[in-house]
Amino acid sequence: xxxxxxxxxxxxxxxxxxxxxxxxxxxxxxxxxxxxxxxxxxxxxxxxxxxxxxxxxxxxxxxxxxxxxxxxxxxxxxxxxxxxxxxxxxxxxxxxxxxxxxxxxxxxxxxxxxxxxxxxxxxxxxxxxxxxxxxxxxxxxxxxxxxxxxxxxxxxxxxxxxxxxxxxxxxxxxxxxxxxxxxxxxxxxxxxxxxxxxxxxxxxxxx
Length: 207
Hints:
This protein has four helices and twelve strands; from the N terminus they run H-E-E-H-E-E-E-E-H-E-E-E-E-H-E-E. By secondary structure, it is an alpha+beta fold. The chain has a single domain (about 30-205), classed as Chitinase A, domain 3. Residues about 1-20 have low confidence and may be disordered.
């Protein structure tokens, strides 16, 4: 009985905050389910069939856009690849491809992005270097200096690069809990926002 009363009290504490505002704790599972629905809807609206959509245990969805026809990717290979990061509204927020980045920068110079009545300089890319990652039996090893990847990024690569050769392309969709979570990131990625990356392996060095 006392245990039950304690649970009730904890519930009231969570709901009461400061000046009387009601705070409802977020449920990660509910958000995960919302993200999953949004990701599937995005893929189906872009004419990918259910048979083409892969899924990891952490809810990352992926589609092999092009398997490629050049060098295969095996364990211990040193892989160089380009990427495009975007929201599920197809707004690009990051890329390693200079042609795309320069085009976006020019667009926003002509059409400034405005937030809270202030002009935001959205694209400030100074380099468009590809990323380099080594694959091993324990997963992707990220070299020093390339840290900061969200969990879903490496998970998406581990699940899909084994199906690719150089010249291929894969689209991975990452639920917010494996991306930038409740805080979001930057101008375009709001709180609890699932995101997508298109990854393109461009060179493989055999170890």
